[in-house]
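Researcher: Next sequence.
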Amino acid sequence: MPSSRRAMSRPTSLTCTPERGRIDRDRKPSTELEFKMPHPTDVHVGRRVREARVAKGMSQTDLGDKLGVSFQQVQKYEKGTNRIGASRLLQTATALNVPVEYFFDGVNDGGQDDSPVNAKLSRKAIATATKLHQIPDEAMRREIIRLIDVASEVRLAS
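Model: Next structure:
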């Protein structure tokens, strides 16, 4: 005979209530402080993982395969929803061929500067920068950058 205990079990949502100092299994979170928000450092590291992955032309599935996780887990890392542990971060750095420090570059800036340097780069912008960097002729690269500079100034002037 099947156990009736399983059929009668309650949902297992746990909420820590500061006023009681213990876990209340049935109480729904009532204040914004009780919801977990990603830490800004986790968001920054995730953004840097995404930038490095896209610059390498790697999909989330490809990176997930190298790390032994699903592409959904890679998405959570990139959004900062799930933290990346130290060993996984080292594994990620190896898979993307970047130093671990790369993920923390600019973390102390606070992200409050709205300059284009600190803007979140689109997939196309990262891919374009990567292709530009791959042009072997330095003079040609400089001319392309000059063309982009002139085009952006013309657009700003109009």
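Model: The CA atoms of residues 2 and 67 lie 40 Å apart. The radius of gyration is 23 Å.
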